[in-house]
Amino acid sequence: MKAIVLDAFVTDLSSLTATEAPLPKPWQPADVLIRITHASITHVDVLYARGLHQNNRRHTKPPFTLGLEFSGIVAQSPAFSAYRPGDRVFGSALGAYAEYIAVPEKLLRRVPRGYGLREACALGASGCVAVASLMGERGARLRRGESVLVLGAAGGLGVIACQVAKAAGARVIGVVGSKEKERVVRGLGVEVVRYDSPGWEGKVRALTRDGEDEEGGVDVVYDPVGNVESSLRCIKYGGRVLVIGYAGRHGVMEQIPANKILLKSAKVIGYRWGEHGRRFPQEAEKVWDKVMEMAEIGEVKPVVYDKEYKGLESVPRAMHDVEANKAWGRAIITIANEGEVLEEMSKSKL
Ligand SMILES: NC(=O)c1ccc[n+]([C@@H]2O[C@H](COP(=O)([O-])OP(=O)(O)OC[C@H]3O[C@@H](n4cnc5c(N)ncnc54)[C@H](OP(=O)(O)O)[C@@H]3O)[C@@H](O)[C@H]2O)c1
Fold first, then answer.
1. Structural domain contains residue 231
2. Where in this chain does the record put each Enoyl reductase (ER) domain (predicted)?
3. Which of 254, 270, 286 is where one domain is finished?
4. Which of 119, 190, 236, 242 has its CA 20 to 30 A from that of 158?
């Protein structure tokens, strides 16, 4: 099969190429083999290619196959598996920029009703991050009627967080940096503030000022960008800041004077979906159930960047677009056509 195998971290994304690699072997007897049709390009993939993610210092070191989120069709499964060849699935595991991947079935979900494989790939784990961190007991415990500010609102995590907060009955304001992204986020039915205009934090407070609260400010900030200082300026007294990621920091972490937390009696809550899933698997299952329900009733709809990327050879171009902040929602690579895969599979049975 073809795959983008990283033998060393790269400085130039254009140097990433798909080469011939052995078909993945199941790591465990329960692994399911999937013919990948789609893979997404996330901010983490770009960091992994360059070796800049915190995981690259510990467990994710070359050689490895790039790509973290995929959708596709089950090609082989053990007899006792819940999945059968031909089932449409999506999941998150290292090795998605390839024609095939073998994963434990607990990492898979069926494509939600009403979704295509492309849309399921764009949903990925973003719904879980939003549901668990915004609504969960270990997160912000968002209540109906509260206000939520979503930074990086047009990004892969942001577009889903806006929808999850809205479905939870919150007033949602998205923060974006361009006219095109403003259009995308307004399309989700939420208010927008542009961070490329000076004093944008003041605009957030002005929007949320009312008779009872003259200072203004939101109850919760969802921050996948790494701007806790601005988040603290945007919350009301006693508000919560969810630290989700660092998409705007280019690897340099923010230093915040601790008195800014005290002055607002703020709660700053870090949330890591992957680690929570490993430590609290039963809670993670409940989060997945909630996300699947929201997806199937249309409360959460994936947002797919409208540029087409076909084949593994388009991965470097798509990564450049994500890294340059051009893409919105999720940039999706089409690795194989669903109809052709199913035809191939039916012929191989004959
Ligand atoms: N905690 C978790 O469990 C978890 C799980 C998955 C991912 N993450 C992390 O979450 C972060 C976001 O991931 P993603 O996939 O959503 O990334 P993404 O799709 O690339 O989106 C990031 C967004 O951030 C905005 N942005 C970039 N620089 C900015 C800046 N200087 N100021 C304000 N906004 C800026 C961009 O929009 P504009 O063009 O509007 O600037 C972009 O839309 C990453 O750091 C990732 O590692 C965390």
1. yes
2. 11-333
3. 270
4. 236
Residue 149, ligand 1, Cβ within 6 A: no
Nearest CA to ligand 1 atom 41: 177
Tokens, residue 228: 């806790």
CATH number of the domain to which 111 belongs = 3.90.180.10
256 and 159 both lie in a single domain: yes
Residues of the domain holding 59: 2-124+276-349
- Asked, for residue 45, whether it belongs to a domain, the answer is yes
The finding on whether 46 has its CB within 6 A of some atom of ligand 1 is no
Quickly tell me which residue has 């004959």 as its tokens.
350
| The pLDDT of residue 349 | 65
pLDDT at residue number 37? 98
Mean pLDDT, the chain, integer? 95
Between CA 312 and CA 245 the distance in angstroms is 27
Query: CA angle at residue 26 from 22 to 86, to 5 degrees?
Result: 90
Read off the pLDDT of residues 262-312 as tens digits, 9 standing for 90 and up. 999 999 999 999 899 899 999 999 999 999 999 999 999 999 999 999 999
CA pair distance 146, 240, nearest whole angstrom: 11
pLDDT digits (tens, 9 = 90+) for 96-136: 999 999 999 999 999 999 999 999 999 999 999 999 999 99
Verify that 145 and 223 share a domain, yes or no: yes
Domain boundary among 239, 270, 301: 270
CA 233 to centroid of ligand 1, rounded, Å: 19
Confidence of residue 61 (pLDDT cuts 50, 70, 90): very high
> CA–CA separation, 111 vs 121, rounded Å?
9
Q: How many domains does the chain have?
A: 2
What is the C-alpha to C-alpha distance for residues 316 and 17, in angstroms, rounded to an integer? Answer: 8
- Same domain (yes/no): 34, 82: yes
Mean pLDDT of 65-77: 97
Q: How far is the CA of 70 from the centre of ligand 1 (A)?
A: 19
Query: Is a pLDDT exceeding 80 seen at residue 74?
Result: yes
